[in-house]
Amino acid sequence: MTTTHSVIIIGSGPAGYTAGLYAARAMMEPLMFAGYMSGGQLMLTSDIENFPGYPQGIGGPEMMLELRTQAERFGLKVQDKNVEKVDLGSRPFKVWVEGQEFNAESIIICTGAEATWLGVEGEEEQKGRGISTCATCDGAFFKNEEVIVIGGGDSAMEEATFLTRFAEKVTIIHRRDVFKASKVMLERAKAHPKIEIKTHRQVTKWLSDEKGLTGALIEDPRDGSTEEIACTGAFIAIGHKPITEFLAGQVVTDSEGYILHEEHTMTSVPGVFAAGDVVDTRYRQAITAAGMGCQAAIDAERWLESQH
């Protein structure tokens, strides 16, 4: 007979591990499927300086290992495997992993969101070595340096404006001359003395040396002409994609696929909760994801108690 777990946590990262910690301490015996790339987006972050309790900062992978170790100490069981599909039509819920079926009275979804990358030459090598998708996380590392921001929406304008606090110069690269950004955000960026906007440009290759990023080769898509731009930091702001395909539309999401909360951290399916970047389109920080993971575990525990 298949064992029915009190709670299965799908995904890891700060939200998943914190949910696992709280659920384990509440004696819920949680089982986590952390994914093949366990740890979430922070596995690509070299230094985290804005998480409370780490006065000297900490590496992203190191922090994820510490969170995982702490949760496992209290009894969280972790498998570094991907969930293929779920059936949320009736309880116990069904979760399939590598062809094997697992049952759960409740589920906490912490699968996060993937930043959209450019996918150009040199990008894989420079992720976390100059190329980032989060100015709030990494902007302070580029004091008095030249950086670029890729994108034409509100996020790109917001990142560029934020980076002016640290960088000497910020260049926004946008492949068109029409912007998705709101008028107020665009005008604020245009008016800033540290910001230059280059339209009809797209990055085709990242340039680097042994120390890290040194610049980018940018192309005018209208005529194919190219030029090099120097920078030690680059921030890609062309969007995020929530990891929710495995749910096959069984919980209510917004038009982008982000899960919507119905009551506290519960989704449209009673007994199914969600936390972290799979929900959060606004903050996307390790600390807010961890806080929501805590909330989801407490909500799941209280909901399970109410069912008996």
Describe this structure in words.
- It is a single chain.
- With 308 residues, the protein is α/β, with parallel strands linked by helices.
- 24% of the residues lie in helices and 26% in strands.
- It has helices at residues 13-25, 60-73, 123-126, 135-138, 154-163, 183-191, 286-306, and strands spanning 4-10, 31-33, 77-79, 85-87, 93-97, 100-109, 113-115, 131-132, 146-150, 169-173, 195-198, 202-209, 212-219, 226-230, 233-236, 240-242, 272-274.
- Strands 1, 2, 3, 4, 5, 6 and 17 form a 7-stranded mixed sheet that branches. A 5-stranded parallel sheet has the order 8-15-9-10-11.
- The longest helix has 21 residues, at 286-306.
- The protein is elongated.
Determine the mean pLDDT: 95
Number of helices: 7
Which structural class should the secondary elements be placed in?
A: alpha/beta
Uncertain segments of ≥5 residues (pLDDT<50)? none
How does the SSE layout of this entry go?
Layout: E1 4-10, H1 13-25, E2 31-33, H2 60-73, E3 77-79, E4 85-87, E5 93-97, E6 100-109, E7 113-115, H3 123-126, E8 131-132, H4 135-138, E9 146-150, H5 154-163, E10 169-173, H6 183-191, E11 195-198, E12 202-209, E13 212-219, E14 226-230, E15 233-236, E16 240-242, E17 272-274, H7 286-306
Parallel strand pairs: 1-2, 1-6, 2-3, 6-17, 8-15, 9-10, 9-15, 10-11
Antiparallel strand pairs: 4-5, 5-6, 7-16, 12-13, 13-14
Overview features:
308 residues, alpha/beta, 7 helices
In short:
By secondary structure, the protein is of the alpha/beta class. It has helices at residues 13-25, 60-73, 123-126, 135-138, 154-163, 183-191, 286-306; strands at residues 4-10, 31-33, 77-79, 85-87, 93-97, 100-109, 113-115, 131-132, 146-150, 169-173, 195-198, 202-209, 212-219, 226-230, 233-236, 240-242, 272-274.
